[in-house]
C-alpha cells in the first residue's frame, strides 16, 4: 500500500476524494492536514472530522493547519460548496476525531520524516500548509515519494479569473513557492473539469442513511447555471481525480514542463504559466496532467461509492 497524507479544505469534491482514498485497498491514509479554502479553517477542520465520523474512520488523525494565505487576504468559496464549506447536514464531530496537537504544516513534516521516501502528499486545497512545511523542512521534496497537487489551469481557462484556478488563486505565493521548489505533479482544471459522474450513475446510488444522503449532496454541489457555463452534465469532482491518480498510475497522462505561478495582483494572480513551446529554455520543474482516463475514473469512483453505500 502507498502511504498518503491528504492536505485538504473540505469542500464537496474534497469529501469524495477523502472517501475514495479511505476506501481504496492500495492506499493507507496516514492523516489529514486542513487548510482555509472552501471555508475558513475551523469549518474545513470540522468537515474533515465529520467525514471521518460518517465513514467510521475516527482512527485517522487530523491536524488543523493555516487559517489564512501567506500574504493575501482570506477568501472562501461557500457560494459554491454550501454554507460551512460543504452541502448537506454533517454529524457534529465528537472527541474521537479531536485534532492532534500540532499545526498542519508541522504534521506534514513529521509524517514526511516518519515515512521518508515513501509518502505521497496529495494537496487538494490552497497550498499554504505545504509552503509552510517547506519553510520548516527545506528537504521536504526529497522526503516525499511524490507531491500531487490539484490546482491551476495550464492550457484552458480558470474558474476564478480567466487565467486562475481557485486553489492557486487563494494563495498565489504559496503556490508559486511549491510549484517552483517541490517538483510537483500538477493536476489542473484542464483534466479535472471533466472528472464527473454521469447523472444516470448518480441516480442509482443508494441514498438511505446519513452517508448516502451526504454523498448525493456532495455529488451535486454545483447549481444548474454552473453546469451550463461549463457545458458539463454534473459537477466536476476535481479533487477525487487526484486521489484516483495516486491509487492508479494509469489514471493520468502527465508531461514534464517548466512552469511558474503568477503572484502579482490582478487577472494573472494565481495563474499557472506553463512553457509549452520551451521558449524560456528552462528545465522542467514538475509534471502537468494533460489527459485522464475518464471512464476509468468514473468506474473507480462509481464502484467505490456503490460498495461503500451498500455496506
Ligand atoms: C478546487 O477548488 C476547490 O473549490 C475545490 O475543492 C478544488 O480543490 C477546484 O478549483
Ligand atoms: Ca479542495
UniProtKB/TrEMBL annotation:
<dbReference type="InterPro" id="IPR001910">
    <property type="entry name" value="Inosine/uridine_hydrolase_dom"/>
</dbReference>
<dbReference type="GO" id="GO:0006152">
    <property type="term" value="P:purine nucleoside catabolic process"/>
</dbReference>
<dbReference type="GO" id="GO:0005829">
    <property type="term" value="C:cytosol"/>
</dbReference>
<dbReference type="Pfam" id="PF01156">
    <property type="entry name" value="IU_nuc_hydro"/>
</dbReference>
<keyword id="KW-0378">Hydrolase</keyword>
<feature type="domain" description="Inosine/uridine-preferring nucleoside hydrolase">
    <location>
        <begin position="4"/>
        <end position="299"/>
    </location>
</feature>
<dbReference type="GO" id="GO:0008477">
    <property type="term" value="F:purine nucleosidase activity"/>
</dbReference>
<dbReference type="InterPro" id="IPR023186">
    <property type="entry name" value="IUNH"/>
</dbReference>
<dbReference type="InterPro" id="IPR036452">
    <property type="entry name" value="Ribo_hydro-like"/>
</dbReference>
<protein>
    <submittedName>
        <fullName>Inosine-uridine preferring nucleoside hydrolase</fullName>
        <ecNumber>3.2.2.1</ecNumber>
    </submittedName>
</protein>
<keyword id="KW-0326">Glycosidase</keyword>
Amino acid at each position: 500500500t502507498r502511504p498518503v497524507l491528504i492536505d485538504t479544505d473540505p469542500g464537496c469534491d474534497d469529501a469524495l476524494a477523502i472517501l475514495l482514498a479511505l476506501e481504496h485497498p492500495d492506499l493507507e491514509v496516514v492523516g489529514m492536514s486542513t487548510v482555509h479554502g472552501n471555508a475558513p479553517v475551523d469549518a474545513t477542520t470540522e468537515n474533515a472530522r465529520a467525514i471521518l465520523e460518517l465513514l467510521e474512520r475516527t482512527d485517522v488523525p487530523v491536524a488543523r493547519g493555516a487559517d489564512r494565505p501567506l500574504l493575501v487576504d482570506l477568501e472562501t468559496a461557500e457560494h459554491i460548496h454550501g454554507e460551512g464549506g460543504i452541502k448537506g447536514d454533517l454529524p457534529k464531530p465528537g472527541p474521537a476525531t479531536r485534532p492532534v496537537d500540532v499545526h498542519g504544516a508541522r504534521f506534514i513534516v513529521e509524517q514526511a520524516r516518519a515515512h521518508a521516501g515513501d509518502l505521497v502528499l496529495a494537496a487538494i486545497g490552497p497550498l499554504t500548509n505545504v509552503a509552510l512545511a517547506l519553510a520548516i523542512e527545506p528537504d521536504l521534496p526529497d522526503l516525499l515519494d511524490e507531491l500531487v497537487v490539484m490546482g491551476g489551469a495550464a492550457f484552458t481557462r480558470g474558474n476564478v479569473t480567466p487565467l486562475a484556478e481557485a486553489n492557486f488563486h487563494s494563495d498565489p505565493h504559496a503556490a508559486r513557492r511549491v510549484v517552483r521548489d517541490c517538483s510537483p505533479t500538477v493536476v489542473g482544471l484542464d483534466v479535472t473539469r471533466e472528472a464527473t459522474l454521469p447523472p444516470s450513475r448518480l441516480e442509482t446510488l443508494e441514498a438511505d442513511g446519513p452517508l448516502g444522503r451526504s454523498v448525493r449532496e456532495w455529488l451535486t454541489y454545483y447549481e444548474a447555471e454552473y453546469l451550463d457555463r461549463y457545458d458539463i452534465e454534473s459537477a466536476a469532482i476535481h479533487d477525487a481525480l487526484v486521489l484516483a491518480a495516486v491509487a492508479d498510475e494509469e489514471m493520468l497522462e502527465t508531461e514534464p514542463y517548466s512552469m511558474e505561478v503568477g503572484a502579482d495582483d490582478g487577472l494573472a494572480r494565481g495563474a499557472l504559466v506553463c512553457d509549452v513551446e520551451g521558449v524560456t529554455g528552462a528545465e522542467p520543474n514538475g509534471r502537468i496532467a494533460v489527459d485522464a482516463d475518464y471512464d476509468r475514473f468514473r468506474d473507480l469512483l462509481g464502484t467505490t461509492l456503490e460498495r461503500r453505500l451498500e455496506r
